[in-house]
Amino acid sequence: MNGAFADVLLLLAIAVVLVWGFRRIKLPAILAYLVAGIIAGPDVTAWIKDPNDYHFVAELGVVLLLFSLGLEFSLPKMIAMRRLVFGLGAGEVVICTLIFAGLAYLWMGDWTAAMVIGGTLALSSTAVVIKQLGESSQLTTRKGQATVSVLLFQDIAVVPMLIIIPLLAAENAQVGIWESLGIALLKGAGVVVVLMAIGKWVLPHIFREIARLRTDELFVLATLLVALVAGGLTHLFGLSMALGAFLAGMMLGESKYKHQLEADIRPFRDILMGLFFITVGMQLNLQVFWQNLHWILLAVLIIGAIKMVVVRLLAGTMGEREEDAWGAGLMLFQMGEFGFVLVSLALTYALLPQDIASMLVGVGVLGMAVTPLVIQRCRQLVAPLVRGRTRGEQTEIIQPDVSEPKRVLVLGFGRVGQTISRFLTNEGIDHLAIDHDTKRVQEAVAGGAKVYFGDAARRDILKTVHADQVELIIISFAEDFKALEVLKAIRELNEHAEVIVRSRDDLHLQEMMDAGATQVVPDTLEASLMLVSQVLSRSGIPIRRILSRLDQARRSHYGDMHGFYPGETTDMDPEKIDRLQFLHAVQLNDNAYACGKELRQLGLDELAVQVKSVRREEEEFSEVHGDFVLNKGDVVLLAGGPRAIEAGESYLLNG
């Protein structure tokens, strides 16, 4: 077996096992990739002798990540963010570089090594931070935008850093640095102009023609080609490949193909990013790491504290909220992936001792490893730093009078909850809403709405608003799991109240009914009913019959509406697959097992499959019972889960 193929096979095997194990215990996949790299690296199993063999492929993951990021940041948006990018971002890079370089010079007494260390530690991990911001839905928050702005400038700042490091080793460094930087700036401006022109005048026409062909493979290939060509073009001019990919994504971010491009690039990006983190883990020298673990831990804490304070002060002077300023600083505490590139380049030019370089890699790996956990718990970690202000804000919330129970409780005051509240107010029905969003409650109370601040899943909050005595409770949360949690808490206090629960779809309908819901109202099915009522009304059907049909559908818990025909775009998420209800038509051929048999003989109920209808030539049997006999040529419409339908089809045809 080819050696390289065997290495990749082993890497994939260990990555699959570790990612599965880490996700089972609710840890980020990035940690699994880092551990996989450590195991496969030279210090443990030595499966991979030289991690640099995979450096280029891993770098493509960063390129595709920056391309995806560029799709989210159009040029107008980039111009609008210039204050944060070139203010907060530039300030962080310059100040942190000088501080870290100064500390390194005091420690080592070598100003060239100190400059390398200063620039390396000033950078943060675009790959890890962007990925975690996206997964935790913080990318569009104010602190997320501030964080991304700093990361963008850091990626730009990598370019002069990559130029300066070789010049630091030259004798005439002072002259060479300024000349080379000037040339680099001219090159960068030229590349940006060329890419912007291509993006504005060429790419839209290319993707329009590709879209007309309706060939998914061609669209994917074109997307990859654009990202890599843009990265290759900037690399050709001595700039970062990631910068070119970002510019390409930003050019296409304004097109109508933005979401399709993002969906196409995601699988390649995630796989290559995983390989990138594996190569990072391989670079960790375990012997140096364990011997200097106390110093590495101290370095991570000091670096993080300095970055937090610098970002907090800069963001504060720019008018950012205190919580957002601290949060952005906390998210940027780690050393970035480009730091490994700078360390490797410095070793090539003998600007850093080997042991110092190994410690820097240890600092980077440890910082990256804990970054996902830090970002997930950013709010809790920042809370002590702004606690005084947070308490002050909460005390400003004027809680409504809850001395007497209300007629109706509305749990969740989002758009749906607010709509319900308005109708109840118009009808003069006494009610109270509960929500845990501080800003929303403040705005609502200021506008005269009766909203109580608190978590509706907490028993003490529910008792305070007399949920145990209310006769009608409406749960309007957009998240089904949150609604289910609140429903269970209510039923522990109140068994007799009518509880109407809003749900996104019918995936959790039965689970909510089993938990005690009086009625579950799925958004997707109710939207279908509203469309049906409009269609029937415009078709001349009497309003009385329409209302009767709608009422019948709701009373049967949307029984006839469950199940749908799957398509290529159907979400086949493994966590959802067992709860989906599909429709599938099975035609009975001459040799089918079910021909000539009654439905009760087949026992399809035992396979968790229902027969919705049977079509025989031109006749449709919409209601079939146990004594219905199936004939040759019948088309049987089955309803059930994907696996159940497969089993049902096999049984009907083969027995």
Description:
This protein is an alpha/beta fold. The longest helix is centred in the N-terminal third of the chain and has 29 residues, at 173-201. 64% of the residues lie in helices and 7% in strands. The protein has 30 helices and ten strands. The chain has helices at residues 3-24, 29-40, 55-72, 75-80, 82-108, 111-122, 126-135, 142-168, 173-201, 203-213, 216-236, 241-252, 258-282, 286-291, 293-317, 322-331, 337-348, 354-376, 378-382, 387-395, 415-426, 438-446, 459-464, 480-493, 509-514, 523-538, 543-555, 574-577, 599-602, 642-654, and strands at 408-411, 431-435, 451-453, 472-475, 498-503, 519-522, 582-587, 610-616, 619-621, 635-640. The chain has three domains: 1-381, Na+/H+ antiporter like fold, CATH 1.20.1530.20; 406-554, NAD(P)-binding Rossmann-like Domain (Rossmann fold, 3-Layer(aba) Sandwich); 575-652, Regulator of K+ conductance, C-terminal domain (Alpha-Beta Plaits, 2-Layer Sandwich). Helix 25 links the parallel strand 5 (498-503) and strand 6. The strands form two sheets. It has a six-stranded parallel beta sheet, with helices on both faces. A four-stranded antiparallel beta sheet has the order 7-10-8-9, with helices on one face. The chain is globular. The model is unreliable at 171-175, 389-396 and 572-576 (pLDDT under 50).
DSSP summary: helix tally: 30
CATH fold call of the largest domain: Na+/H+ antiporter like fold
Q: Please, what is the oligomeric state?
A: single chain
Describe the global form. globular
By helix and strand content, what is the structural category?
A: alpha/beta
| Biggest sheet record | 6 strands, parallel
CATH architecture of the largest domain: Up-down Bundle
* Name of the level-1 CATH class of the largest domain: Mainly Alpha
In total, the number of strands is 10
Helix percentage range: 55-70%
Overall number of domains: 3
Regions with little confidence, pLDDT below 50 for 5+ residues: 171-175, 389-396, 572-576
Proportion of residues in extended strands: 5-15%
Average predicted confidence as pLDDT? 80
